[in-house]
Amino acid sequence: MGRVEAMMNSMPPIPASRRRPLDRAGAPALTVLCIAQDAPVRELLPRVLRFDKVLVTADFSEAFMMATAEAPDIAFVELGIGDGAGLSLVHHLKALVPDISVVTLATKKNLDAAASAVSLGATGLLLMPLSGDDVLSSVWGIKQRLVERAERDRLERAAAVSARATGWIARIAEIAEAPDRTSAARELVEILIEVTGAKGAAVYLASDTVPQELVLGAASPGLDKAPEVGTEKHILDTFATPRRLLAVPLGSRNVAAGYVLLDEDKPRVPAEQGADPPIDGIIRLLANVAATAIAMLAERERAARGGAAIKDPTSSAYSFAYYVDVAGREIGRARRYNRRFAIVTMVYEPIPGQPALSPTEYADRLLAAVHDTDVLARVDENEFHLLLPETSGLGAHSVRRRIARLGTGEKSASSRALLVGAAAFPHDGQDLGKLLRVARLRAEASKTSVVHRLDPESTTVPDLLEMLIWETVNAAPARQTSAVRPIELGTAEAQALAQSVVADAQRGGAATIVVTNHADLCLGAAVRSALGHEADKIALHALDLRAVPGCERIEALAVIAEHGAYALVARNDDGVLRGAHAADPLLADVLAERLGRAAGVRLIG
């Protein structure tokens, strides 16, 4: 007994709180100490508690060393050990490990000592010889209490975090009063580090000028090497992911203001292993509030720049800066809600010898030709851009035709006073820069279109075929993709070409197709075969022109699709199609219009 007390006096109590692994059943795994001289007992416990950590000994000194090092959750003590020393072990183990549960093991002759053990703090009594069920019952009660205690601790911590979150939300809402977005980003970095205990934080803000680009607003010293600017994918893939930073969008359903990066101080512990309250949820809530505050600040900055930055000073159009801002938001909505929109680029080049319009007059003409919801912007002296919300590629083609007639005030679509090019989201590009480049290239290509060299007095399909053949033979080689090229193909090869063109047109979803058609093998049959049963969005006009003078052997195909246009017209000479073709929107319009006129129907407005 004296030896036990001497050992106890030299050992400090062991704290009870610690994080525990889980056994296969999802209950916390325990550390079990067995102090017994009975060999069957020492063999039984490790076998029954195979998913827990079981320490077995019959020696007093070793038992205390194990208790000190491991802080067991439960101890099985044989009362008959050491001529009564087992009884004193109950008291001393409780003093050494305050939260330990001590289960005494006794034979019938030790029942008196068992009663004394309960008074000293023992939580249970098992009669020897032991069974596996006895051991499991004793341990299960301990596990239940640990689960209940862990859940109570978790709820208390969650309640404390929720109480503090109210104050954090109020502080973040105040950043809307910062002088500018950079100052707001610095304040947000400080708050997030305080809230999360992270080693570092960085805040990226949505760019004012370049859609889908992020600009570094502020960063703590730990993340001072963060990229200054870049797309979301570039920043996350090259900086955040390699450093295992937590990346949280600064946004909500209708607001996208940037990104937050956090360098956490320690690895995250899963909730099922006793993690702290759901701090991720708190962080995302704060990020949503911060996004709204920063968006409000951005709107205030935009308004502070004044109306002069919105309107073009010399015409009734908007400024290009305002156009970029509106287009960026339109791209964001189109991505989020799977919508469509298009842009049109217009370059006004007065024809020598004809009256020229001033930018103001021309802007007024454009505005009269478009919808109120469309946004017209002036880029430079004679260049305008038009944003068409909720407009597909086919709608953009229609607007292009309507605008092209404004060049000289004439009805002819072949006027060179105005270069027009259209691009549609998402087929021609998914960012504003790509869409603007495609529309500008198409506008430039329209300047060299063969349509400008056609004789407007020659309106029949055979006349058009002859002029195109002459163009391919006598005109200087053109480098544009829309240049007219000669074609000489057998019937089978021509049908394969038509099927390929139609398949590409279907890639965009909607299209208008005008094709010659009759009972024999022809382009019309090839087009019908290519469409199959998936022609819901295709407007097909199959025209039989064999009764029209001069069109008995004409084969023609005009395709106007979401992402481009194609025109082919040829004469069938004993199974060989000879003619011309081009990926030229203007030529496709003219061919479709003349095919319709030959058939007595109006196809292109």
UniProtKB/TrEMBL annotation:
The chain positions of domain Response regulatory read: 31-143
Region annotation Disordered: where it falls in the sequence = 1-20
PROSITE patterns attached to this UniProt entry: RESPONSE_REGULATORY
Alphabetical list of SUPFAM superfamilies matching this protein: CheY-like, Nucleotide cyclase
Q: Which superkingdom does the taxonomy of this entry point to?
A: Bacteria
In terms of Gene3D superfamilies, this protein maps to:
3.30.70.270, 3.40.50.2300
Q: Which GO terms describe its biological process?
A: phosphorelay signal transduction system
Pfam families documented for this protein: GGDEF, Response_reg
Name of the protein in its database record: Response regulator
- Organism field: Polyangium jinanense
The organism's lineage is:
Bacteria, Pseudomonadati, Myxococcota, Polyangia, Polyangiales
